Amino acid sequence: MKKIKSLKSFTILEALISLMLMSIIIAVSYALFNLIGKQLSLFNKEHAQVLEYNLFNSAIIRDIENANDYNMINDELILKKYDETQISYIIRNHYILRQNDIKTDTFTLQTINYKLINNTTPNILQKALQIKLNVLQDTITTHYALNKDNSEVINLKYFNED
Questions:
Q1: pLDDT tens figures, 36-73
Q2: pLDDT for 161
Q3: In angstroms, how far is CA 107 from the centroid of its own chain?
């Protein structure tokens, strides 16, 4: 007589349970990767806005420090340097343009309000530019002191030298 060998295999129930466990693991890992991707995208957008503000802030501070004269005409701040070059900042609602002889920079910052403020002190040389910006759903109010050179103001007022 021949002996019948028994085959070792999984039952249909065991195969279904393992398939169900694998599908749950795959679904959870997909949701986790999707959530991490959204968080990374949000972080990159926030980082870009902060970087844009920091670039604008450092550029305007450097330009004001290097300028010896300024003019504010409507929505344009014109900074003049000693070498007769000038840099202009044009302020719009959704961006700020920085133009000079070489290039034009665009800062994509949402501007809420801007104005030129005269100091209440009797010193006529000091004015400040106030700009309110919306960065990361928060309002940032910046003040930039615009100081004309004392000799420049005296010469213009009393001697009218060009």
A1: 999 999 999 999 999 999 999 999 999 988 888 888 88
A2: 46
A3: 7
138/140 Cα distance (integer angstroms): 6
| Per-residue tokens: 147 | 């100081």
Q: Please, are residues 106 and 84 in contact by the beta-carbon 8 Å criterion? A: no
- Note whether 56 and 62 are within 8 A (CB): no
129, 134, 135, 140 alpha-carbon torsion, rounded to 10°: 40
Mapping DSSP onto H, E and C, the string for 82-140 reads CCCCEEEEEECCCCEEEECCCCEEEECCEEEEEEEEECCCCCCCEEEEEEEEEECCEEE
- DSSP 8-state class, residue 10: -
* Model pLDDT for residues 86-117, shown as the tens digit of each residue: 999 999 989 999 999 889 999 999 998 888 88
Query: Binning pLDDT at 50, 70 and 90, where does residue 124 land?
Result: low
Which residues are within 8 A (CB) of 70 and not within 5 positions of it... i.e. 6 or more apart?
A: 64, 77, 78, 79, 80, 146, 148
Q: How far apart are CA 68 and CA 26, in angstroms?
A: 65
- Residue 162: predicted pLDDT: 47
